[in-house]
Amino acid sequence: MSAANGLETMWSELVELCNEQFNSSPFKRLLAMKFTQARAQQYSIQMAYYVQNRRDGWGYVQGSAPFEVKKLIWQHEEDELIGQKAQGKVDHITLAVKEGEVFGLSAEAFERTARLEGGEVCFSAWIRLAQRPWLEAIAGSAILEMRNSGELIRGGSLSLRIAAMLERDLGVPMKKQINNAEHVVMDVEHANLLMQVARKYASNEAERRAILRGARESLMIDRVYRGHLADMLEALA
């Protein structure tokens, strides 16, 4: 198989793996949820911790990546760590806290609420994956951007689906869900990062297998994490 054909086959498999997430039991449970205010509040807080973990993970990936890839990662992370001019250059942690206001949360609520125990374990697993050989590591982080891309996911990205649920159940329109709205847009662009890297650095089958290995492991962690979120929400009124 030529390198070009190998890349296209790999990409098709990655896209299908991302779509299969939504057919898994944890994702189905999460997306079958009815949001109350209490559930929306706790979900908002835990997702702020998830965003923080993604910043940590990408930092580890950047540290081990080749110089040209470090540049791509920084361009990606600049959106998250500093923010877009259109958003007044607000970083995405601040964006998550500001979004919490529409669910009745204060900034202090984010500070005093603990991470889910299961979430903490998943965050540690993602950090370990981010310290693996760099092709596996970058795939482990980039696949989560692909899984949230409205261009790749049939039926809409996770952020879009959750935003629609919050609008349906609590009457909060997308334009007021500033964190979800930002990721609906930005993760379409960010989803292309992995293929940019693969075209230059995955010229043989072993390198493409490394990418698939990192992606599969990250999606496994992702399923476990969404299951813990579903457990948390089901326990709340």
Q: What is the β-strand count?
A: 0
CATH topology: Heme Oxygenase, Chain A
CATH homologous superfamily assignment: Heme oxygenase-like
Q: How many discrete domains?
A: 1
Name the beta content range: under 5%
Biggest beta sheet attributes? none
Secondary-structure-based class equals mainly alpha
Mean pLDDT equals 89
The coarse silhouette is globular
Uncertain stretches: none
Label the CATH architecture: Up-down Bundle
Q: Given this structure, which CATH class is correct?
A: Mainly Alpha
User: What helical percentage do the residues reach?
Assistant: over 70%
Q: Radius of gyration from the CA trace? A: 17 Å
SSE arrangement, N to C: HHHHHHHHHHHH
Give the N-to-C terminal Cα separation: 54 Å
Question: Treating each run of at least 4 consecutive H or I residues as one helix, how many helices?
Answer: 12
